[in-house]
Amino acid sequence: MRWWHIEALEPIEREVFAAEAWSPAMFWSELAAGHHYLVAVEDGELAGYAGLAVTGDEAWINNIAVVPLRRGHGLGRRMVGDLLDEARRRGAATVALEVAVDNAPAQRLYDSYGFEQIGVRRGYYQATGTDALVMIKELS
């Protein structure tokens, strides 16, 4: 992802995350911090994006979004795989993430990669009060 993708991802962010959507400034900050973000382009249009932060031997998947019309075709799966590969390249031993308790499709995706639930953050998503599952994967 580069700065010029931010404008194109804003409508996707709002559609996918609604009240919990990140602002453009948050994405600018993530890129300025050197975090790894990727975009998926299909048929010349932004179809999804995902981000990873690595500090020492710990990595966090910050977000993954796929345009609703593009879901179910493996794009999210490919992006998770790419983020895990990048975490390994950067020397991470573990990768963690938060996922909304009511987002069963994302939970199934993370389960399929071997992420395990280690906790719950009550009211993590502040705008809606939704809880988040904390999931972690050990890298080998």
Task: Give short descriptive properties of this protein.
140 residues; alpha+beta; 4 helices
Q: Count all strands and give the number.
A: 6
Cα-based radius of gyration, to the nearest Å: 14 Å
Please state roughly what percent of the residues sit in beta strands, choosing from under 5%, 5-15%, 15-25%, 25-35%, 35-45% or over 45%.
Answer: 35-45%
> Please, what is the average pLDDT?
94
Low-confidence stretches: none
* Overall body shape: globular
Structural class: alpha+beta
Major beta sheet, strand line-up: 1-2-3-4-6-5
How helical, in percent, are the residues?
A: 25-40%
Oligomeric organization of the protein chains = single chain
Terminal Cα span? 27 Å
What does this structure look like?
There is one protein chain. With 140 residues, this protein is α+β, with helices and mostly antiparallel strands. 32% of the residues lie in helices and 38% in strands. The protein is built from four helices and six strands; from the N terminus they run H-H-E-E-E-H-E-H-E-E. A six-stranded mixed beta sheet has the order 1-2-3-4-6-5, sandwiched between helices. Strand 2 and strand 3 (58-66) form a beta hairpin. The longest helix is centred in the middle third of the chain and has 15 residues, at 75-89. The protein is globular.
Topology:
Layout: H1 6-17, H2 24-32, E1 36-42, E2 45-55, E3 58-66, H3 75-89, E4 94-100, H4 104-112, E5 116-125, E6 130-138
Parallel strand pairs: 3-4
Antiparallel strand pairs: 1-2, 2-3, 4-6, 5-6
